[in-house]
Write a structure and sequence with these properties.
This protein has 176 residues and is α+β, with helices and mostly antiparallel strands. It is built from 4 helices and 7 strands, in the order βαααββββββα.
């Protein structure tokens, strides 16, 4: 059996792929620990700075209780801001990662056979066997055949019948 699908990979498909892959990578225990640790260090540095400023003000006014609470609020807001900024950075990196005329964006043909997957674009060709697929992921618009945690074959499937056929065929061959 052979499934052949002609489609156009768009920048939004690539961004969706990157968000999905990045989410999985950030959930890796070591990466998550580093990500959260960096945020905590940022918050602690900001907290020390705020406490230093409050201590300077306290010596002038003679009280610190409300200042300490303000320091905690500022640190909490800084941590939330840091996570929001990191999310925006990930989106911008995904947008910058695929350009028109490159190998990720544009018309592509995927051929799925019992021996493997072939992806052909205007200026690239990628071929792999089913044994190199480590996971099959689904999003609302894509079927992703991961060849490693950060790379894979991106198959846009907007037609529900093609989507079901592609997923079923991939799962049958992946489990071999």
């Amino acid at each position: 059996m052979r499934i052949e699908q002609h489609s156009v990979l768009t920048q939004s498909d690539y961004i969706e792929f990157q968000k999905h892959v990045t989410k999985d990578l950030l959930n890796h225990p070591k990466v998550r620990w580093l990500y959260q640790g960096a945020g905590l260090c940022f918050m602690l540095c900001l907290g020390v700075m705020v406490l230093y400023i409050i201590e300077s003000i306290r010596t002038l006014e003679g009280e610190i209780s409300s200042g300490a609470m303000n320091a905690l609020i500022v640190c909490g807001l800084a941590l939330v801001g840091w996570f929001v900024l990191m999310s925006l950075v990930k989106i911008q990196l995904a947008k910058a990662g695929a350009i028109e005329g490159g190998t990720m964006i544009g018309p592509v043909t995927h051929s799925l056979t019992e021996s493997g997957i072939v992806e052909k674009g205007e200026n690239h060709r990628f071929e792999c066997s089913w044994s190199s697929i480590i996971a099959i992921k689904e999003t609302p618009n894509l079927v992703i055949l991961l060849t490693d945690p950060a790379k894979g074959v991106i198959i846009p499937v907007n037609d529900i019948s093609k989507r079901d056929e592609t997923i079923q065929f991939a799962n049958q061959n992946f489990s071999k």
